[in-house]
Amino acid sequence: ETGVTQTPRHLVMGMTNKKSLKCEQHLGHNAMYWYKQSAKKPLELMFVYSLEERVENNSVPSRFSPECPNSSHLFLHLHTLQPEDSALYLCASSRSGAYTQYFGPGTRLTVL
Amino acid sequence: GESVGLHLPTLSVQEGDNSIINCAYSNSASDYFIWYKQESGKGPQFIIDIRSNMDKRQGQRVTVLLNKTVKHLSLQIAATQPGDSAVYFCAENRGNSDNTGKLIFGQGTTLQVKP
User: Fold this and answer.
1) Nearest CB neighbour to B102, from listed A41, A45, A104
2) Rounded distance between C-alpha atoms, residue B84 and residue B17, angstroms
3) pLDDT tens string B29-78
4) Which of B93, B98, B106 is closest, CB to CB, to A55?
5) Lowest CB count within 10 Å: A59, B12, B100, B101, which one?
6) Nearest in space to A40 (alpha carbons), one of B74, B75, B4, B9
7) How far is the CA of A63 from the CAs of A16, A20, A57, in angstroms?
8) Which residues of chain B lie closer than 8 angstroms to A92, CB-CB?
9) Which residue has the higher pLDDT, B3 or A60?
10) Beta sheet of B56-58, edge-to-edge order
11) How confident is the model at residue A89 (pLDDT cuts 50, 70, 90)?
């Protein structure tokens, strides 16, 4: 399954580091999403981009900063994270007007 | 309120048997539902979806049933195979005004297939 790719697949960072997660979709979609998946919790929607404009920010702390330079790429910039931010970060995409979202494999983030 | 729940965190079935995974939702205005399968180390994979104007939809070895009266959704897997072992999530779509999706996920049910 290579429709939605994410890099890196694993990331370990300290609380003072700055890092970025990258997502790329090859499905011709024009909406992209960031989700957080923590153990024993449902997937949490973080951000939604439609046609490269942010249309939803689900009360996410400012230490997470998304960027969508074009409809195929989505970034999540990370800055001064906390250990409780350790989770699997999933990217998804969909066609505008369609509800089905297709997910990437995720980035497993560990904050020390 | 918004919540999507699954009845059982873990379901163990014998290979070859049928599996039924249940999900309850609370928002009667939801008009679209979707099931995902997530294997270890992978992202959620689309299995099947259903709109609220339907009560049943079939795919390859899978069937989704929707009971709007009791706000209940189920996923049936026929002749369960070891490769079906995974975590299964149901989700309801609330949608945004710009036609992007807003999926509300349940906690997930882990399906274990015994050989």
Assistant:
1) A45
2) 12
3) 888 999 999 999 899 999 999 999 999 999 999 999 999 999 999 999 99
4) B98
5) A59
6) B9
7) 11, 11, 13
8) 43
9) A60
10) B4-6, B19-25, B72-77, B62-67, B56-58
11) very high
Distance, CA of A77 to CA of A66 (rounded, Å): 6
The burial of A39, by beta-carbon neighbours within 10 Å (0-12 exposed, 13-18 middle, 19 or more buried), is given as exposed
Flag if A31 and B100 touch (Cβ within 8 Å): yes
Query: Is residue B90 within 8 Å of B30, Cβ to Cβ?
Result: no
pLDDT at B99: 59
Does B101 contact A55 at a Cβ distance shorter than 8 Å?
Answer: no
3-state helix/strand/coil string of chain A:
CCCEEEECCEEEECCCCEEEEEEEECCCCCEEEEEEECCCCCCEEEEEEECCEEEEECCCCCCEEEEEEECCEEEEEEECCCHHHCEEEEEEEECCCCCCCEECCCEEEEEC
Q: Which residues pair with B86 in a beta bridge?
A: B111
Q: Pick from A11, A20, A16: which is nearest to A65 by CA?
A: A20
Structure token digits, residue A19: 């890092």
Peptide bond connecting A83 to the previous residue in cis, omega within 30 degrees of 0: no
Q: Verify whether the Cβ–Cβ distance B101 to A99 is below 8 Å.
A: yes
